[in-house]
Amino acid sequence: MGGIQGAQGGADNVQYDNAIDNAEQAGALHAPQHPVNKVVAKGEDENTTSQTGGTGETRQATKTVDQEVNERLAGDPEYASALAEYEQAKQLQEFYDLIDSSVGMQFNGNICRDDIIALVNDVHAPNKAARDAAKFLNDHPGIWNALAKGDAFVGAHDVQEYIANKKAAVDAKKSHVKSDVQAERGIQTNQNGATGGAAPATGGAAATPNEVIEEAKNGAPPKPAPSTRGGLEGAEENTSNMMGWMEGEIDRLTALMGKTDDPKAQKQLEMQLNQLSRRMQQMTAMLNQITSMMSNISKMYADIAMNSIRNMR
Amino acid sequence: METLAQEFGFTPDQLEALRSKAFDLVDAGDHDGAVVVFHGLLAIDPNEAANHAALGSVLQELGKIDEAVASYDEAIKLEAYSPLARVNRGELRLKQGDSKGIEDLRIAAARKSPVQARAQSLLRRFGG
Q1: How many CA atoms lie within 13 A of B85 on its CB side?
Q2: What are phi and psi of A76, to 5 degrees?
Q3: Which of A157, A241, A245 lies at the smallest CB-CB distance from B78?
């Protein structure tokens, strides 16, 4: 690693950094246009609702849930940004496939930042397509930085995971807006005096094993929206949200266990509960470690500051 | 199957921040704490070979050799060329008298940059 880039010396590094800055701007300007309308048009229509006027003479058809979701998403810059990142990520797969198929032996199925830089710098590279692909990645440093985690090698799995993450962000945003729309419609319908809208109440009545298993599988509450913060703050927020969701899920599954005596259903619920509990414990332990370390660091800085003040006296 | 990271929308930089804290703990000499953070991180995202490899090296440092090897195995399962996992597992295997360690080290040592690979290809072509 580091062959060509290392050999270029400081001046070239500065040049490279400038190029990165320029490329970032260019990347923003030339980012693929996001086919928002095309994507949202694919949404499945569902829950067509209608409102009956007070006199019953006119029936004003309202938008379907998906139509309204699509309209809201079309005007949502966060969604557009998530979609843009997803589209770029898909181009990354093309890049990776190209690199892997054309110079797969050289890369051993892995790529690293120096590989990219080396290919970009090598104007005599025999494989022009691979060099073009490397240039694309070099021109979009944001993708590489998010993907590569420093100078580590990047394998096919990393690429797929990166794309999956970007898709998950798009889906999460869509799902969040959809939940909002559905919730609003539920309230609206109730205000109009009609029935429905609210989630079916789960009473204490006994249910068949299949019903319980089905409800355990599909009745989970929606996942919390991902944190918009980056770095450790975002990670802590997401972890806390996740633990909150898991707590709710543990309560829900525990309540479901009381609804059946079927050993098979109970066993399945128990397994799910065990897994959730184990994860909760892991998350709690992890957050405790991090919090305790942060508090030690704060204390250390406070001690340093206090010593400095004492020394000044 | 979706990972927790995907389900709850953890971004790569958030996961990186957690990973960085694990390394901070290693630097502070708190290897047990680092293991806890790596386990948490891997519960969120079990598909990250580099984290399995890093966990393996911390466990190796703690003398938990079997667990370390299991982590390296996992890393290599996810990323066949994971250099850290290959080198450390290779070393552990050889120390235990297992000649399969040679294969691990060969694979790690064979990792070339494209420029190196091209140099080799040119050498072959021009008989150097």
Answers
A1: 26
A2: -105, 110
A3: A157
The domain boundary residue, chosen from A184, A217, A243: A184
Question: Virtual CA dihedral for B14, B15, B21, B25, nearest 10 degrees?
Answer: 170
To test the contact with chain B by mutation, choose from A4, A276, A282, A298 the residue with the greatest count of B C-beta atoms within 10 A, namely A282
Task: Decide if pLDDT at B55 tops 50.
Answer: yes
Residue A49 lies in a domain: no
Parent domain of A83: 3-44+59-184
For the residues of A216-232, what is the DSSP string, one character each? Answer: HHH-PPPPPPPPS--HH
Asked if residues A191 and A244 have their Cβ atoms less than 8 Å apart, the reply is: no
Q: Which residue has the higher pLDDT, A239 or A158?
A: A239
| Residues of chain A contacting B11 with CB distance shorter than 8 Å | 146, 165, 169, 226, 230, 234
Confidence check: pLDDT of B31 > 60: yes
Classify residue A53: in a domain, yes or no. no
Degrees, nearest 5: CA angle A98-A102-A104: 100
Same-domain check for residues A209 and A262: yes
pLDDT of residue B56 exceeding 90, the answer is yes
Does any domain span residue A194?
no
Average pLDDT of A76-88?
83
pLDDT score for A79: 85
Same domain, A161 and A217: no
Range of the domain at B109: 4-125
Cβ pair B115:A231 closer than 8 A: no
- Highest-confidence segment of A29-43, A166-180, A195-209: A166-180
How many domains, in total, are found in chain B?
1
Contact criterion met (CB < 8 Å) for A1 and B4 = no
Q: Which two tokens stand for residue A179?
A: 């939940």
What does the pLDDT average to over A207-228?
Answer: 82
